[in-house]
Amino acid sequence: MLNNLKSTTTLHNGVEMPWLGLGVFKVEDGDEVVSSVKAALEAGYKSIDTAAIYGNEVGVGKAIAESNVPREELFITTKLWNSNQGYEATLAAFDESMEKLGLDYLDLYLIHWPLPSHGKYVETWKALEKLYKDGRVRAIGVSNFKIHHLEDVLENCEIKPMVNQVEYHPRFNQSELHEFCKKHEIQLEAWSPLMQGGLLDEPTLVEIANKYKKSTAQVIIRWDLQTGVVTIPKSTKPHRIAENADVFDFELTSEDMDKINALNQNQRMFADPDEFNKA
């Protein structure tokens, strides 16, 4: 049930993952990320999503350490960067991330991009399986994987991915990928759910927001949740962080859901995972 910030989805291994979390992409390490994470935790958030390439794992860890929230109540995600793909390099990169975060275990570890030109993501997945079997991470998954990347992993894995975090918003709802993930019990998660603010003035969304006396951001986040997609909107402003979480006191009608679904244009804001090869 989507009742509050503690509401969770159950991953295929039984681990409970919050439906809503804070993403910290492009949030500066130091005071900015520390204050953002603290504001989220004070607002009741339980899930924080970072990545090695964001350069702010130290600040995320500091905020967690200085908060009064018990570690076992939190769900912390970080991601392996492209330059560290490969079995041994992945294990070393995980250790480095854990040292920066100052954590004894991680809740979710993701391969950040498939990086098909390097051809290492299946080998990299084997390293994630080891980390999972060793009890160092509670769940493992991927990010920005298309169907054919997932098929490669599924054909070669002992443990299938629990999460696939992808670009997902009303202009790019990835319906085919979503159906594939549901079929294989892989939880879809949205990054950049607000299209970096690019949808906040979209007339259909403004009209729906006015109907519910909510912001367009809140409507998009609620749409994510009602489509069964975990979402991690980013903000550094405490009032916006709290506002983004105020989405559990209303429910979009099927008609409104259809209107939002109709906004899809298969429009990516960011790189195609088959073409993104930055290491």
TrEMBL record:
Sorted UniProt keywords: NADP, Oxidoreductase
Domain NADP-dependent oxidoreductase: 21-264
Origin superkingdom: Bacteria
InterPro entries for the chain: AKR, AKR5G, Aldo/ket_reductase_CS, NAD(P)_OxRdtase_dom_sf, NADP_OxRdtase_dom
Pfam family, one: Aldo_ket_red
Keyword Transferase attached: no
Name the UniProt record assigns to this protein: Aldo/keto reductase
Organism whose genome encodes this protein: Mesobacillus maritimus
Lineage of the organism: Bacteria, Bacillati, Bacillota, Bacilli, Bacillales
